[in-house]
Amino acid sequence: MFSKEESREIKELFWTSFGKSFPRKWTLYNTKLKGLSFKFYFDNKKAFVTLDLEDDLENRINYWEKLVSLKSILLDEYLPEAIYDEEYILDNGKEISRIYVPLEQKVSIHNKNTWQEVMVFFNTHMGLFEDFFEEYKVILED
Q1: Which residues pair with 40 in a beta bridge?
Q2: Residue 55 DSSP class
Q3: Which residues of 97-111 are buried (b: 16+ CB within 10 A; e: fewer)?
Q4: Which residues lie closer than 8 Å to 97 by C-beta, 6 or more apart?
Q5: pTM above 0.85, yes or no
Q6: Which of 20, 22, 55, 131 would be a feasible disulfide site paired with 123, CB 3.0-4.6 Å?
Q7: Which residue spans within the chain are E strands per DSSP?
Q8: What's the rounded Cα separation, in Å, for the pair 60 and 85?
Q9: Cα-trace Rg, the chain
Q10: By three-state DSSP, how is residue 41 classified?
């Protein structure tokens, strides 16, 4: 087991290592679309990349309908393993809509032996998410 401080330091080291290994500017929160963001997630059991819709319900529904209309393109041309979840509940109880791609292998941020695999997964899959977003952003903006 790790203390909270040790765990925080390990997480910080992972993200610093990821940034050095794959230096690029990610879109993430800077989509310029209110309530729509990309995120990396890595904890003691799993890793995934997400496209989250966290705005008010009306705005979420608007974006969600557009993303559903693009579902076959996302799955066929970019991320065939993407999961659409219209009502995703976060750990804090907040409901959002989420499209995500999980890493199927068992990984842990506390196990440095899994870091390279997660970094490559993040770089590849978030890159594909961003490519999709850039190609179809104009549809989401309407």
Answers
A1: 49
A2: S
A3: bbbbbbbeeebbbee
A4: 52, 53, 60, 63, 64, 85, 86, 87, 88
A5: yes
A6: 22
A7: 36-42, 47-53, 83-89, 95-102
A8: 12
A9: 16
A10: strand
